[in-house]
Amino acid sequence: MISIKALEYLKGLAEIQADSISGGILYLFIKNDAVIWRKQSKDFKLNIFNIGDSVSVNGVTARAEKEKRTVIENVPRSLYGMRLRIIAEPMVDDSGEIVGVFSMVFPRIHPVGSAFKDFAPILASMFSEGVFIYTTDLEKIINIQSSKKFDIPELAFEAKFNEDFIAYKAIKEKKVISEKLHESKYGVETLMINSPLFDEETGTVVATLGLAVPKGTAANLRSMSENLDRGLTQVAAAIEELTASASTIHTNEQKLNDEINEIIILSEEINKISSYIKEIADKTKMLGLNAAIECARAGEAGKGFGVVANEIRKLSEQSKSTVPEINRLTDIIKQKVMEASEMSKSSLSSSEEQAAASEEITASVEEISTSAEELNNIAQNL
């Protein structure tokens, strides 16, 4: 118990200390079951125990006065909307009679909440992409720590949350909850983790600690891998068409090469026919010459036959003269065909190489596509 003579000293000390106590404090002097003096710090915003208010006859103050001893009690949230710790100290006069109670009311904050301002800035600096850290009670956000690279204005100090918010789910399920949120929620794909905080005495959930981490790198990586996969699919389809086209070209080139070989054979046959025509022309000429000799011997009677013999010789000469021209043209055709054949063979070889290269590219694209899929899986897990 404290002497009533120390009351003014305690009031003066309260005035000095009130705003320097972390979490806030409320000092009270209660006499005759009513509050007659109070000092509240700026950080303590609960509107309770105002001057003139009566106190409960079953409360901490009444017990301290009745039992004539210091009473410390933890008050649940259900009573004043906040977990409190109240210390009630009886004050006595010179005769030892209790003349009032000096009380101190502290908000009961989970140790994580109490240390938030100390560890949160350090923790925030450890995330290269930025992070948003916060704590909540059972209804609203009570601490926030953003980083230069990432902030969530929607999660403001003392903002109340609804059943869709991750903290509500962590409180209800009493376990750590993690969610991946689409970029439409906070402007960038976000991973949110929320952990319930338990009362060290009762084991009930009294608060939560949450982290929101932007997953821009993972989203970009996944987008790149998806674009790469789509691009590779298109390339693979184009190469498949190219391979089919190369195969068709190869088949056509093969047929063309076969046709050219047949033309060469026909050219050789034409040369044989030309030789045969020359041979016939030579024999016809000889027959015409013999006919002319016989016509001369026959005299007047063989004149008509002589005209025929003469025409036969002319026809023989004409046939003979066309043979070199036929041979020349045939040789030109043969030469051109040979050149075309060489080109066809070269084209055929190139089409074979193209088909082989297309198959190799297709295999490479499949490997890259597999890598892109693995890259996408890695991005999903980031």
Describe the structure.
- It is a single chain.
- The chain has 382 residues and is of the alpha+beta class.
- The protein folds into three domains: 2-108, Beta-Lactamase, CATH 3.30.450.20; 112-218, Beta-Lactamase (2-Layer Sandwich), CATH 3.30.450; 224-381, Helix Hairpins (Orthogonal Bundle), CATH 1.10.287.
- It has helices at 7-17, 60-67, 77-80, 111-114, 116-124, 166-173, 183-186, 216-298, 303-381; strands spanning 2-3, 26-31, 34-40, 71-75, 84-92, 98-107, 132-136, 141-145, 177-181, 190-198, 205-214.
- Strands 1, 2, 3, 4, 5 and 6 form a six-stranded mixed beta sheet that branches.
- Helix 8 packs antiparallel against helix 9.
- The longest helix is centred in the last third of the chain and has 83 residues, at 216-298.
- It is rod-shaped and about 190 Å long.
- Residues 218-382 form the Methyl-accepting transducer domain.
- Residues 343-363 are annotated as: Disordered.
- It holds the Pfam family MCPsignal.
- This is Methyl-accepting chemotaxis protein.
